[in-house]
Specification:
By secondary structure, the chain is α/β, with parallel strands linked by helices. The chain has helices at 29-40, 55-63, 76-85, 103-111, 126-132, 176-179, 185-190, and strands at 2-6, 24-25, 27-28, 45-50, 67-70, 90-95, 119-125, 140-142, 145-156, 168-172. The strands form two sheets. Strands 1, 4, 5, 6, 7, 8, 9 and 10 form an eight-stranded mixed sheet that branches. It has a two-stranded antiparallel ribbon with strand order 2-3. It is globular. The chain starts with a strand and ends with a helix.
């Protein structure tokens, strides 16, 4: 399985002067994600997807010997679609803005992977996010619960020709390690209480 870290976004909702993945929570946020994937020992390769929106993040990753791949930076879905066309194996994809991610939750999620499913998305319930003190702009209903995407998916890229009409399996895992995405300054402030 290949570990893919999406690190090419603008981070526009944070309204910062610098790139959000370089914000520090003991160390730069992007390194929490990279180290979690490395320490899980679940991946044959780890690649960070960067774009012209994240030149400092790309430079930082390369200085830390992390493989990068450039995308257009047109959007998460568009960039992921391009990436999936480049690989023909199982993929674990995560957003780069999960500062509490650790190797044990990565292992737990990877152990849930079934390659018979084309796409498996990990969700967190809205109620759990409310209890954390964060929120999501987009929700879906899963098992009669209002949920949000965690930014983590497992994909059998051998079975994908495009992202149109893919049957998605969803799994709800209410865990702060995958529930706290850095989308706003308030989310960053929550790290102090995590």
């Amino acid at each position: 399985m290949i570990g893919i870290i999406m690190a090419g976004g603008k981070g526009s909702r944070m309204n910062l002067d610098r790139e959000k993945l370089l914000l520090k929570y003991k160390k730069p946020v992007i390194l929490h994600v990279v180290d979690s994937l490395k320490q899980s020992n679940c991946f044959s390769k780890i690649i960070a997807i960067t774009s012209s929106n994240s030149p400092q993040t790309k430079q930082f990753l390369e200085q830390n010997n992390i493989d990068t791949l450039n995308s257009s930076g047109d959007g998460y879905v568009e960039d992921l679609n391009v990436v999936l066309q480049k690989f023909d194996e199982d993929i674990f994809v995560t957003s780069g803005d999960l500062p509490l991610l650790d190797s044990s939750i990565v292992q737990k999620i990877c152990n849930l992977y079934d390659s018979e499913n084309i796409w498996t998305s990990i969700l967190v319930s809205k109620q759990f996010l409310d209890n954390l003190g964060t929120k999501s702009d987009f929700t879906v209903t899963c098992n009669n619960k209002e949920c949000s995407y965690s930014g983590i998916s497992m994909i059998n890229s051998k079975k994908i020709n495009s992202l149109d009409n893919i049957e998605e399996k969803t799994i709800i895992i209410d865990d702060k390690r995958i529930g706290l995405n850095l989308n706003t300054k308030d989310d960053y402030l929550l790290l102090g209480t995590a």
